[in-house]
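Model: You mentioned two targets. I'll fold them one after the other.
Researcher: Yes, keep them separate.
Model: Target one:
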Amino acid sequence: MATDVAARGIDVDNLTHVVHYSLPDNPEYYTHRSGRTARAGKKGTSLAIVTPQDIGRIRFFEKIIGVEITHIKVPLQSQMYNKKIEKFTEKIMNEDTVELTDEMVEKAMEAFQFLTKEDLVKKILAIEFDKLHKKVERDDLNILGDDRRKRDKTQKDRISSPYDRDPKKDRDRGRDRVRERGADKDKPREGERPREEYRTRPNMVNYFINLGKIDDVYPVTLIEFLSSFTGITKKSIGDIYLHKKHSIIQVDKSMTKRLEESARHLKFKGRKIIVKQDSI
C-alpha cells in the first residue's frame, strides 16, 4: 500500500505490478503510479480496479496518455466457484493426515455413516462456499458496466453536466441544445431554437474551448480535462454545448480567474488549447 508521494519519491527495485485501487483525478498521477514498474528499463503490469462510474475517466486517460487500456471483465460467479473448487479439492488431496488419530477418524466416520458420498461432498462445499455465496448475488457482475457503456454511447452528445443537474430537466432540454456555429449562426436551422433563447445560468460565464466532436471528446471528457489541468472543481462546470470543432462551457464565476490563469499553457494531445470568454 502506498500514496502518490511514494509513487513519486521512493524507489522499489523489481516491482512487477501496480494495482490502482481507485483512479486518481489527474492522469499525471496515474502515469507516475504505473511508471513504478518501468524502472531501469524493466517492464511491468499496471492494473486498475474500476467501476462503471469510472468508464469516462478511463477514456479520458486514454486520450491524454495516448495508451489503450485493456478492459478485463470480472469473472463470472460460476467461474469463481469452479476455480475455488479446483483449489479446494487440490488442497484436500495434498493435506497431510499423519496427526489424526484412529479415534478421531472413527468418531467422524460414525457421525457420517448415514450420509452418502455425494451428500458429504455437498455439505463440505456448502461450508466452504457459504461466505462467497452471500457476497455475490448475481452471476455476471459486468452487466451493469455494459449497460452503462450503452447509455454513454446514446448520450455522448448530451451537453448537461452529470454532476449537478436534474436528470428529468436535462432530458427535456437536451434535444434542442446542440447546434453548429457558422456563417448563418444567428439564423436558427429547422427544428432549432432561435439563438437568443440560449440562456446562461445565473452566476455562470460562457467559455469557448477549441475542442469539439471532431476531437472525439464528450462532455465528461471536457469536465475531467478541465478539472484535472486547471484546478477548477467539477461542480463549478455547468452546461456544455458540444459543436463540431469547439465547445461552449459554462463555468461558475468564482472559478473564472483560476480557469483563465491555468489555461494559458493548456495542451491536449500536444495541441495548444484556447480557452476564452464567449457568449452563445
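Model: Target two:
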Amino acid sequence: MLSAAMGGSARLSQPDVRSPMYTNPEQREDPSVRLSHPDMRKLLTNPSEKESYKHPVARAPFTSISEDEFKEHQQSGHLPRAPIASLECMEDLTGCGGDHVSTRSDSQAIVSRQSSLVSSLRYKPLGKSGLRVSQLGLGTWVTFSPQVSEETAEEIITVAYEAGINLFDLSEAYSGGRAEVQLGNILKKKNWRRTSYHVITKVYWNSKGDERGLSRKHIVESVKASLERLQLDYIDVLIIHRADDMCPMEEVVRATSHCIDQGWCMYWGTSRWSAVEIMEAWTNCRQFNCITPIVEQSEYHLFCRGKTELYLPEMYNKIG
C-alpha cells in the first residue's frame, strides 16, 4: 500500500503478517476469504502447489468483494485483490456479445491467458445506439501485414475473440486495404456468428491521393470496396477518418445516410474531428433529416487531453 510520509514523500508499507486473515489456515479454507499477496505470489510462481490452496476464484469465478469487506481491508492497512467483475455488470451476455467466450478446457494455455480478461471485460452501448460493444476493442493498424504474418494475425484475432472482445477496428488505409482482406479471410475461415462481433472501418484516406476525400462518390465506392475485401454483407460502424474542408458537410451526411439506407452499414461516426466539425455535421443532419453520427474516435493520452476532457463533453451536453 502506498502511504504518504510527513515530508511529502511516499513509501511502500508491508502487509501486517500478524493479521489473522493471512495466518489462520482455517480461514484460508473459507472461499470467502481472499489470499494474501505472498500466497498469491507463491501460487503464481508454483502452479503445482495450487491444489493446496482453496482459492476463491477456482470455486466462484465471478465472486466480487463486498463494500464492507473493502472498507475493512482499508482500515486494517491491507489492499484486497482486485474484485473480479460479476456477470451482473454485463447484464445479458447473449445480447452484449459475451456469449462467444471460449469453452475449452483449462488445460489449454490459450484459455489460461484469457481467463483474467474474460472475467473483467465489460460491455456498453456504443454512444446512444443499442449496439453493445466490449470496452476493449482490437485495432488493426499494426496488427496485420507487413508487420506480422497471416498466421500470427489469425492467432491474435482468435485470442481476442475468444477472450470476449467483439469489436474490430479497421480502415481502407491500413496496409493499403490488406488489413480488411486478412480479417475477412479469418472471419470466413472461423465461421463465427455475424451477430457475435462488430466491424468498424474508416473512409477518407486512399492509396492514391487524387481518390481520397469525402465526396459522395468516394464514400460510396470505398464502402463497397471494403465490403468486398471483408467478404461481409454490411459494416457495423462506418467511420469518417478525417473531416474534408473541400467537401460540403451536407454532402457528407447525405452520403453516410445513403449508405445506411442501402444496408451497407448500420451506423456512422467520426474520427479525430473537432467539436466544431461534429456540431456542424449534427446540425446538417437535423436540417436535412439525415442520420446523426453515434461515436467519435479521438486521440487521447497524457499530452493530448483538452479535446476529450473539455471540448467534447461541452458539445455533447449541448447536443443532449
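Researcher: Noted. Anything on target two?
Model: The first strand starts at residue 2 and ends at 4.
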